[in-house]
């Protein structure tokens, strides 16, 4: 078996807050005017990624992992997670504010949902003027204050909001109350989990006049009521893997690519590249594959050496 870079059919999600940027900017195959998410790489039940090209075209990622777990995941990842793919990769388009929400940690998610928790990071790909995110509390809070402000529809008054621009990175540990604001397109990297507790949804209704379910009580135990520092500063040295996030669940580097880089991997982990600007190609085994802004590619752990070449901004993700 010759292992090669794997790209997948996007799994498109219609959302009440979604728009058309994933089509107009990233060229995703979208018909709806309310697509909020493109799941690029997923093994979430019911939303398993399908290979888009090559010898494995049409195959489910879970099937390939089951057949070649160490070759795809890497020896260290397989020893830690078995045949589970531990991360989920998305692009998001927020035409409106997302709901204010929180994700449980591993222990709580395991107890309640038999799931991973949901530590995540955001890379801001595009930001309209005055776009902002909501992250954490302005000052240390508590369950009583949270519930009182929720009841009085003043929750926003105790939450911190930050104006953002393209290139900003935010790392959100579980328990951090947050929302992506209107006018943002985001690359999101997270643990494999679809567990979200919705705290407040701005009293929005869908086309049938229904509000979305809130999870006020479930969130009480999940929330971190302390203030948090979420923005990550990072270097942007050309043709280098500049460290951005290094946590127990994933490592993310930023590569400003301008030319060619030879890459060597140990085989302990898969690598994922998300192209957030420009275009590049991967050269391997006398073959060459091309990628553009908005593409996401999984490099199986069995690929130990290859060359990336082009002019692009790339997020490099693996598990260390």
Automatic annotation (TrEMBL):
The active site is at residue 198. Pfam families: MPI_cupin_dom (PF21621), PMI_typeI_cat (PF20511). It comes from the Bacteria. Residues 245-318 form the Mannose-6-phosphate isomerase cupin domain. One of its GO terms (biological process) is carbohydrate metabolic process. One of its GO terms (molecular function) is mannose-6-phosphate isomerase activity. Binds 1 zinc ion per subunit. Zn(2+) binds at residues 103, 120, 178. Residues 8-114 form the Phosphomannose isomerase type I catalytic domain. CDD domains: cupin_PMI_type_I_N_bac. InterPro entries: Carb_Metab_Reg_Kinase/Isom, Man6P_isomerase_Firm_short, MPI_cupin_dom, PMI_typeI_cat, RmlC-like_jellyroll, RmlC_Cupin_sf. SUPFAM superfamilies: RmlC-like cupins. Keywords: Isomerase, Metal-binding, Zinc. Its cofactor is Zn(2+). This is Phosphohexomutase. It comes from Flavobacterium bomense.
